[in-house]
Design a protein that fits this description.
Layout (H helix, E strand, L loop, with lengths): L9 H36 L3 H8 L3 H23 L5
Helix pairs in contact: 1-3
Length: 87
């Protein structure tokens, strides 16, 4: 009896599909990272220079809350950029 060698496209299709899905996830992660980095940049822009004077007039609790937000945004950018929270 002759051996048959069926051709299957599942592994190749799965590989292509997985690659496209991974690429889409990478693009989504990069977009999310860029969005967070822009928010972080904008937020820090008001914390120094002329904007910093206004910021320093807020209560200690408000300042702590804003700086906590800055830290959280920076941490998320680090995770999306390097896969970890910090150096």
């Amino acid at each position: 009896m002759a051996e048959t060698n069926p051709i299957t496209f599942t592994p190749a299709a799965r590989t292509v599909g997985d690659a496209r899905r991974a690429e889409r996830i990478d693009i989504e992660a990069a977009n999310r990272r860029d969005h967070l980095a822009h928010q972080l940049y904008s937020l820090t822009a008001i914390l120094y220079g002329e904007g910093g004077e206004s910021f320093r007039n807020y209560s200690h609790d408000i300042q702590d809350g804003v700086l906590w937000l800055v830290h959280d945004l920076a941490e998320q950018v680090m995770k999306l950029s390097f896969g970890k929270e910090g150096p």
